[in-house]
Amino acid sequence: MNVIVTLDDRGGMMFNCRRQSRDRVLNERILQLCGGKLRLNAYSAKLFAELPAELTVAEDFLDRAQDDDWCFVEDLRLAPYAGKIGKLAVYRWNRLYPNDFAFDLDLAAWKRLSQTEFAGSSHEKITEEVYIR
Q1: Are the C-beta atoms of 38 and 56 separated by less than 8 Å?
Q2: CATH hierarchy code of domain 2-132
Q3: Could you tell me the residue ranges of all domains in the chain?
Q4: What is the pLDDT of residues 20-59, one digit of tens each?
Q5: Quick check: pTM over 0.85?
């Protein structure tokens, strides 16, 4: 499976059971990356509800994901699925936000394929990093 995450500068993903931030341009870019087909849970699906996408919404979406599926993860631990992940897209907010839930994979074990910066709708600079095992 392929996984997409959004992180702050400390690797934070959520605070007080809520996403740290959101950005319309980023959501559109994520859908371009995954060809408009995305697996995610109901909480995350709200981000993409008004965009043209084929969303597969299930609370156990990581368990159901196939090798070529793209999964958007905001509020789940990824370490238990590390062996199933072939590609990882990390979007960095380039900001510090409060967090109490952080990314749990060590990127040192991955090879970075690309790094691109772009302007979002609410963030001056968002960094996209794509990794493979």
Answers
A1: yes
A2: 3.40.430.10
A3: 2-132
A4: 999 999 999 999 999 999 999 999 999 998 888 899 999 9
A5: yes
